[in-house]
Specification:
This protein has 88 residues and is mainly alpha-helical. The chain has three helices and no strands. It is elongated and about 60 Å long. It starts with a helix and ends with a helix.
């Protein structure tokens, strides 16, 4: 595989991950009551506080994973490519 191809894939995955995160946040912000009603009917014992904690922790984990698995490798590949060009 070409280095630029991998960099492009990592960058697109990072952008897509953040788009998913923003959509999740907007749905949670706008339709929180509807989402709670749906999940409350499935999980009978869930409280309002537990519902919020689950969603905010999920959003935090998604953000962490997007950074760790997509942005950091992308930045590392870009830095090593710049270092290689100046040495060659």
């Amino acid at each position: 595989m070409d280095r630029r191809f991998v960099e492009g894939v990592l960058l697109r995955c990072f952008i897509l991950g953040f788009v998913v995160l923003m959509i999740w946040f907007l749905f949670f912000l706008v339709g929180r009551g509807l989402i709670y009603d749906v999940h409350g009917s499935i999980f009978k014992q869930i409280t309002d506080r537990q519902f919020e904690v689950i969603h905010y922790c999920g959003m935090g984990l998604l953000k962490l994973f997007v950074f760790v698995f997509f942005l950091i490798p992308y930045v590392a590949m870009r830095w090593t490519a710049k270092g290689r060009k100046s040495v060659d």
